[in-house]
């Protein structure tokens, strides 16, 4: 760091820049990949630590990784401003200003690291120890890159036309390993250079992109979410595959519907992010969280540990009781004194609490219905799935509705239902058998007691 801080800014820099260079370094952004971490400081410099490409090596033809236990600067990018960075298992993608400072849409795209699947987008499979510009997104490119994400061995970028303030058109580009359909190009072939995901609808403006190990997700400003890659774009591993005819990897974008009271779109989306085998979406301007994919260890946050094939609401925000556990007695006293209300205010408060309780119960019932419906039919629950008699009159003839549903179901749906009920019946029989065995053992023990 001492060596880095002693480096002078170019002569063309202003006095303000020179003054900023004397200021303490502050981290503005961080990113972590498979076995390495990155940070961007307030001067626009990029720092790296962990299992990193050996930039000290003079042999540029032999790629190797070395352990860096403390942050080191990326010297190749000194004199430029690093705006964003993303990293996969062993490769790095950075958006860097063409000049000394970032102005408008002047970013170029650098990549380096392991390239055994073309994940650097440089047109070959040769790994790089030092950053190299991806020619598709150089200064002369008509597209401006504004978002970047890395999977284990693939990369995704979002671009827009270089027209200031134009949010009418954007494009998602992917490259690298494509064996699970994670590139969204309609095939399982790998790609050595960036190619657009052509099956995304146009015009569309994408605001966020992220990659799991082997899947990719994007969200548009209008609230549409698309995913592609392993196991129908969910990122699930093969042992969690669907029953029926809709199994396999999604090689093209699949629309992920909201299927909630707001309709098929996610209202006011903010960001989408991917774990290894699950996806989380921030929507409603940050007031709601949705998740889907592998549910082990409770990563979906919906109160369960099972896999979810459709978006489910994360239990957010926490209950009032959970917040109150973290409050000090002094805070409570201040709140009590500052929240004295009239009798009418008290009644309104009770009414609001009742509404919140009803909303919470409704949310839980919707999640339960969605999970049960997904387990049986392997598709998200939609309002159109509610029987017409229940919608019109509030009553339900279960026998008639069941017969009507069986009559209208196609073969695939009937097969899935048969498998579900067969497994459920087998579980019931198993439980009954175990209980009967216990009863027989208990009867034998009682019959063979003292004096028998």
Query: Overall pLDDT, averaged?
Result: 82
If classified by CATH, what would the architecture of the domain at 27-313 be? 7 Propeller
How many strand segments? 20
In the CATH scheme, the class of the domain at 27-313 would be Mainly Beta
Global geometry: globular
Q: What gap, in angstroms, lies between the N and C termini?
A: 87 Å
Number of helices: 8
Pfam families: WD40_RLD (PF25390)
RCC repeats: 44-98, 107-161, 170-222, 223-285
Region (Disordered): 322-343
Organism: Eucalyptus grandis (Flooded gum)
Structure description:
- The termini are far apart.
- The strands form five sheets. Strands 1-2-3-4 form a four-stranded antiparallel sheet, with no helix packed on it.
- About 4% of the residues have low confidence.
- It has a domain of 287 residues: Regulator of chromosome condensation 1/beta-lactamase-inhibitor protein II (Methylamine Dehydrogenase, Chain H), CATH 2.130.10.
- It has eight helices and 20 strands.
- By secondary structure, it is of the alpha+beta class.
Question: What are the defining features of this structure?
Answer:
alpha+beta; four-stranded antiparallel β-sheet; Methylamine Dehydrogenase, Chain H; RCC1-like_dom; RCC1/BLIP-II; RCC1-like domain-containing protein; Ub_ligase/GEF_domain
Would you spell out the secondary-structure blueprint of this structure?
Blueprint: H1 2-6, H2 15-22, E1 27-32, E2 36-41, E3 46-53, E4 65-73, E5 82-87, E6 91-97, E7 107-113, E8 128-133, E9 143-150, E10 154-161, E11 170-176, E12 191-196, E13 206-211, E14 215-220, E15 225-229, E16 250-255, E17 271-274, E18 278-283, E19 288-293, E20 308-313, H3 320-325, H4 329-338, H5 343-377, H6 388-393, H7 398-408, H8 411-447
Antiparallel strand pairs: 1-2, 2-3, 3-4, 5-6, 6-7, 7-8, 9-10, 10-11, 11-12, 13-14, 14-15, 15-16, 17-18, 18-19, 19-20
